[in-house]
């Protein structure tokens, strides 16, 4: 297990690895993946998602509801020994097989829900959290949703459910990078003020810089009788100037050798 205490460097290394893997695979959703690196690094490497070494599994659950960004978990799960290293190495090689996919599914070790169709992850997380609370099982559930999923009615229904049942074992992280595949959310269908809308359910919402590890850690440490809601302001494509705050980098794009070298220098 390759776990470092220097999480700033860990985030940079994961971005490096994922960039090279995107080049190799030739597809994926880098903008959305790179916006949430600090979120998942904090969750796993600060042990909010608790790891049982004796059983080689995690005690808690994580659902990446924005399923196109599940790839962000792969190098982390590899470092904890959940995903075999060879599966990561083989992914993208034409002459090799790998269990890894652009969209995560439950056939992949460490992936707790098959996601991709937006708006379902929060409902799944609520169901898990409700079961664990009802049966007094010591498990926490973390779910990362995109602000684009706030366009889905099922997301608001799940928030109603979480508020009604006071699911204090549920942690909802809204990755707010202000962009969806169609462009700026303000231009598509205005969502702000998201903070006020979510607070209206009775939740105590914490707003953080989603790339600040200390702010994220403090937010995850917060104790509440309700679900823990974290509104993380992020940059789509964080770390790479050709991708940052650009809606079209929701998908992988053709990239020339000069752009590749720029990206490598920026993340070195």
Report on this model:
The protein is of the alpha/beta class and 268 residues long. The protein has a single domain (7-266), classed as Thiamin diphosphate (ThDP)-binding fold, Pyr/PP domains (Rossmann fold). It contains eleven helices and nine strands. It has a five-stranded parallel beta sheet with strand order 3-4-5-9-8, sandwiched between helices. A two-stranded antiparallel sheet has the order 1-2. Strands 6-7 form a two-stranded antiparallel ribbon. Helix 1 packs across helix 3 (37-45), helix 3 (37-45) packs across helix 10 and helix 6 (121-134) packs parallel to helix 7. The radius of gyration is 18 Å and the shape is globular.
- Classified by CATH, the class is Alpha Beta
Major sheet size, sense and barrel closure: 5 strands, parallel
Oligomeric status of the shown chains?
Answer: single chain
Number of strands: 9
From the 3D coordinates, which CATH architecture would you assign? 3-Layer(aba) Sandwich
- What would the principal axes of the Cα set say about the shape? globular
CATH fold type? Rossmann fold
Count of DSSP helices?
11
Average pLDDT score: 96
Main sheet: strand order: 3-4-5-9-8
Radius of gyration: 18 Å
